[in-house]
Amino acid sequence: MSNLSYTPEQPKASTPIVLTIAGSDSGGGAGIQADIKAISATGGYACSVITAITAQNTLGVSAICPIPVEHVESQLDAVFSDLNVVAVKVGMLADSDIIKVVAAKIQQYQPRFLVVDPVMVATSGDLLLENSAISTLKSALLPLADVITPNLPEAAALVGGQIPTSEADMTAMIADLRQLGAKAVLLKGGHLEQDENSNDLLITHDNVQQLSAKRVQTRNTHGTGCTLSSAIASYLAQGNDLAQAVALGKQYISQAIAHADALDVGQGHGPVHHFFPGHNNVR
């Protein structure tokens, strides 16, 4: 007689699904392409809604074609009606109509976490959001966010001020950034290139936490904002609280930048290295 043993079936872990809503970068270094790489590298499952198609490479953006708003809406319905989306990362939205439909669908489907990277300007300096759409972004979408992740030029555009040139200037923006209505703001200090460290401020309603990393001297920084915000969304989807998710995201992007020169992509601002050696250990 054979001796059969029974092992109870283990409950299946829920897949941490992260939706990125953003534009496509034909060069592969930013936008939807960077988001999918970052979410995958950090342990999430990436799905996507494309809001615009850009003709883009490491040298710049040569054309932008917004996706018709009704097709953005149909993509959102297709994803949300089938997949258990835990976290959403929003990047390039191009115009007011797309912002409005994204905000409406976020309110309809109520994902647990919303990370908004207010993409306005590419690393190359090209404008990625119509000026007329900034007010729509502020009124319709930012108040829904768990965290927004502006760099210094984006923060200045959102609050109608000057671009900070020092950490003191960053601190002076805190009150105005809180007025945008998001639960938290991660103000990124990467543009203060004269500083030895790259310091960010995680601003909540009643606290400010500084996150610091050694500044890496490289021109290969294309897609850093997309990558960081996607990593934060991925870590939130995996059960980390906001402070933990931001700290892990900062650690991941710092290493992706540090390893960027190991890649040889393009003639301009090359991409960061999303799948750097040991990336699976950033948890």
TrEMBL record:
Annotated metabolic or biological route of this protein: Cofactor biosynthesis; thiamine diphosphate biosynthesis
Annotated keywords: ATP-binding, Kinase, Nucleotide-binding, Transferase
Recorded GO CC terms: cytosol
One of the record's GO molecular function terms: ATP binding
Domain Pyridoxamine kinase/Phosphomethylpyrimidine kinase: 25-273
Top-level taxon in the UniProt lineage: Bacteria
Keyword presence, Cytoplasm: no
Protein name: hydroxymethylpyrimidine kinase
